[in-house]
Amino acid sequence: MKTTSKENIYKPVTLKENHSSKEEIVKKSLISELLLSLKSGIFAFAVVFTFSIISKSLAYSLGSAKIFAVNINDVIFSFWAFLIFSFIAFLQHYITPHK
Asked: Which residue has the higher pLDDT, 22 or 45?
């Protein structure tokens, strides 16, 4: 078994050492960008849906709503938040300059 020193562990990986083509690097980068944008979309969906449920339960507990029901409209509205925030997070990678 080959042991590595700390200097080898923190050495930057170059294209020759990794044996990856540029297409594979771009593909991995695109997949990571998509996963990050999906994560922000799921967060937006959860926030909007939670806010909807909290506001409906508050209205029910205060008596201004006679029944507590979550409609398909709440899910669709939350889905729109998912789409918008995912799209914004995906575009931020191309709008902001790379350092």
From this structure: 45
Distances (CA, A) of 64 to 51, 56, 68: 17, 10, 11
Give the span between the Cα atoms of 52 and 63, in whole angstroms. 17
> Residue 77: pLDDT above 80?
yes
Where in the chain are the domains? 34-99
Q: And the tokens for 8?
A: 């080898």
pTM: 0.69
- Helices 72-95, 22-62: axis angle to 10 degrees equals 140
- What pLDDT, on a 0 to 100 scale, did the predictor assign at position 73? 95
